[in-house]
Amino acid sequence: MEDYYDIDSILAEDQNIKCVFHRSIPGLAWLEGGQDDVLKAGSRIDIPFWLARELIGHPQGSVEMEIETPDFYGTKVRNGLRAEATVVDLPKLCPHFFRFGAHFLQIIEDPKLGEVLEKAFKDRLQTTMDHTQSGGMSNTTEYLQRLDETERELYKAGLESSASVHQWNQHSFGRIRSAGEVLLKRKLA
Question: Which key words are in the record (predicted)?
């Protein structure tokens, strides 16, 4: 379970998904803008993922509904990720593509989607870390535009780590002293 106050998690869960309700439910007609009090069986509406998850796991009995797999996890995108994951423009599909995928897989049963997302993430992570080793100076702007929010965070962390290693290699952190030398200096002071 992620941190309750994690803004990236909150934004990822705000993604709309299509749901089909299998029975009429009193008090939910407002979801489709209806004037009645009852959401009719067979209604197919877009609702935020966080709401769908709450309706499925409601403590007073889950709501009978089917959650459709979003188009950005459909066959066409999966095939693109299998073929060459690093060229797929994820922000155009879903800004929080991988984080939302992790949440989505918690409520649906689709092992093949999980495999595709895991492999794509690993492939893209390798390329992202390769870009960080160039110090961000090479032609990375086009590549960076195709990263989702999680990957951008990892890219920034990789750049910072690369810069720290470079500083350390250049002896920018100063001279390393032995513990005995530090103790002697403290006693003299």
Answer: DNA replication, Nucleus
Class of domain 3-7+11-68: mainly alpha
Q: What is the DSSP string of 16-77?
A: EEEEEESS-EET-GGGGT-SSSEEPTT-EEEEEHHHHHHHHT-TT----EEEPPPGGGSHHH
**Each residue's pLDDT tens digit, 43-91:** 888 999 998 888 887 655 567 888 999 999 999 999 999 999 988 999 9
- Element at 179 (helix H, strand E): helix 179-188
Position 32: which residue type?
E
Q: What is the CATH number of domain 70-189?
A: 1.20.58.2050
What stretches of 65-148 show up as alpha helix (H) in DSSP?
75-84, 90-93, 97-107, 111-133, 141-144
Which residues does 148 contact at the CB level (< 8 Å), separation at least 6?
A: 90, 91, 94, 95, 96, 97, 98, 99
Query: Is there a contact between 18 and 68 (Cβ–Cβ < 8 Å)?
Result: yes
